[in-house]
Amino acid sequence: MSGQTAEAVRLLEALAQGERLDHTQWRTLLEARTPALAAEAAQRAAAVRDRIYGKRVFIRGLIEFTNYCKNDCYYCGIRHGNRATSRYRLTEDEILACCRAGYALGFRTFVLQGGEDPYFTDARLVRLVSAIKREFPSCALTLSVGERPQESYAALRAAGADRYLLRHETANAAHYRRLHPENQRLEDRMACLRALKALGYQTGAGFMVGSPGQTLDCLADDLVFLTAFRPEMVGIGPFLPHHQTPFAGEPAGSVEMTLYLLSLVRLALPAVLLPATTALGTAAGDGRERGVQAGANVVMPNLSPAGVREKYMLYDNKISTGSEAAECLDELRQRMQAIGYTVAVDRGDFAGISEGKV
Fold this sequence. Notes:
α5 (122-135) packs parallel to α6. Strands 2-3-4-5-6-7 form a 6-stranded parallel β-sheet. A 3-stranded parallel β-sheet has the order 8-1-9, covered by helices on one side. Residues 353-358 have low confidence and may be disordered. With 358 residues, the chain is of the alpha/beta class. The chain has helices at residues 3-16, 23-31, 35-53, 92-105, 122-135, 150-159, 173-179, 186-198, 216-229, 255-268, 278-283, 287-293, 329-337; strands at 56-59, 61-66, 109-114, 140-144, 163-165, 202-209, 233-238, 298-299, 342-344. It starts with a helix and ends in a 14-residue tail after the last strand. Helices cover 42% and strands 12% of the residues. It contains 13 helices and 9 strands.
């Protein structure tokens, strides 16, 4: 065993003991990645996850309710500047119909995800959230609608929203500028995340793996941020290019590095809710299964109406059928059972366990 490998194994053990790593230590773990080290990290991560949550994978019903967006993020297929995108918004009745279909299938968490669409004012979103919670009071409701003022987050929380997903994208300021226009700032994104946590949301952050300009130092910055911020959820998936963005010709992110990072995040934040993302399932046919084996414990099948799924195209070739589709939940169950896991039909709340004592 080389000195670097031995140090990496020691750092994995330190994570297992609840120690918080600094930037240099995280970079050492990233540099030392080999198939053998990744396999050891995955084994440790799965054991931690199983001890807290058991052999259960939580399902979330994903409703992509608008692909209008005021932003121009350089990596995103529904960016404002992409004039070729066929735009849509679901009505309140259509969204409630998605929830009803999902509830009948066994979903007890709904995720409303959309671009930063100015049409959905606070009043409209509060009315929508209230309607969903009134009809499905036992279900958790997650929002993923981007950056909004703190008063907006507070109103949505008061209306009944339980969770909020807002990927930080990158904790490195220079890298953030590479991915976004000048009017989008990392400090604004971080302020939103702090506001969400202060308001009592179960808060989700996350980043893409292999996005243009990303270095190991960027990834180390992400891991330092996540372990300091301690979100209840972390979304990690490989960067996948879209042909109508400035990054059309960039290579896709590494599936193997994504899986390794899932394991490291699980070890650093043992009770975190960690999705095996659609991007991971798009990048590799068995991506979600491998994500679960690496420490993930959430999957988000698509509840959106079939007619709009191909319009919410954040990156090329995004999957929305087969076991990715909510109506094919039995196939998803079979795929999870094949690797020793069951699909749980409860809300799948954050375990709330003190990370240093699991």
